[in-house]
Amino acid sequence: xxxxxxxxxxxxxxxxxxxxxxxxxxxxxxxxxxxxxxxxxxxxxxxxxxxxxxxxxxxxxxxxxxxxxxxxxxxxxxxxxxxxxxxxxxxxxxxxxxxxxxxxxxxxxxxxxxxxxxxxxxxxxxxxxxxxxxxxxxxxxxxxxxxx
Length: 148
Known about the structure:
Layout: E1 6-13, H1 19-26, H2 36-57, E2 66-73, E3 77-84, H3 91-99, H4 111-119, E4 122-128, E5 133-141
Antiparallel strand pairs: 1-2, 2-3, 3-5, 4-5
Helix pairs in contact: 1-2, 2-4
């Protein structure tokens, strides 16, 4: 396994106002091997994942409940993990439900999940009993641009 080119993590309160702090922190990854376009989309995905953790996973928890965001950049991919302390959620089942919604009907909620699924190459959400936390894992593979 190749080592990460860069790794960082931030821990913030479960407060939608902390999103600005998370996005400011994420600006450090706007460097190669990420293109600006990939970084920008990753920022949108991070925004959606963090917002979901605050609004849904931590809905009934105190605003001081921490959310941890971890990012690793490799030569061929970027991986993001958003750790929450909410209840378990079956992301795969929800995505299947959204896939079965007729195209002419807008599903109630879930549009952000559809965006996550369309943009990221891997989307996974699992409960980790050893940490008593859930992790939203997102991976975007980086496509090498051949020089002419």
